[in-house]
Amino acid sequence: MSAGRRLAFRAIAFQAGATALTALAFLVQGADSALAALVGGFALVAGGGLAALVSLGGGVKPAGSVIGLMLAGVLVKWLVVFAVLAVGLAGFQLPPLPMLAAVVATMLAYVLAQILNREGVLRE
């Protein structure tokens, strides 16, 4: 597995942890709030995982192809995020605040993972 893909999946693990912690924090407000937090975090975790698979798969390619794959990965990520959030809000009538709080926490976990990687903490 390439180093980029490995680091991407480590960041996704951080995001999954942030999602679980956010859901636990919202559990005091009830099961619906905890479920909404899980859905919000899952949206970013699933989107990030698909983006990593699309963007970082396939070995060495020309620069134009790599840029196209990176853009496709970002597009896939945000389409998945918005689709999951829409299903959670409109389809299951979940409360929006826990869902958005989990999205923010999950995005911050991604930033933390990148900072730790830059500092050398996540390297092998």
Could you describe the 3D structure shown?
The chain crosses the membrane at residues 7-28, 34-54, 66-91, 97-116. Keywords: Membrane, Transmembrane, Transmembrane helix. By secondary structure, the chain is mostly helical. It has one domain (3-119). The chain contains 4 helices and no strands. It has helices spanning 3-26, 31-55, 63-91, 96-118. The protein is flat. The two termini are 13 Å apart. The model has no long low-confidence stretch (mean pLDDT 91).
Q: Calculate the mean pLDDT score and round it.
A: 91
Low-confidence stretches: none
Order of helices and strands: HHHH
What is the count of distinct domains? 1
First CA to last CA: what distance?
13 Å
How many strands?
A: 0
> How does the overall form come out from the CA principal axes?
flat
Quickly count the helices: 4
Largest sheet composition: none
Structural class: mainly alpha
Radius of gyration: 16 Å
Strand content: under 5%
**Approximately how much helix is present in the residues?**
over 70%
Secondary-structure blueprint:
Layout: H1 3-26, H2 31-55, H3 63-91, H4 96-118
Helix pairs in contact: 1-2, 1-4, 2-3, 2-4
Protein name: ATP synthase protein I
Keywords: Membrane, Transmembrane, Transmembrane helix
Transmembrane segments: 7-28, 34-54, 66-91, 97-116
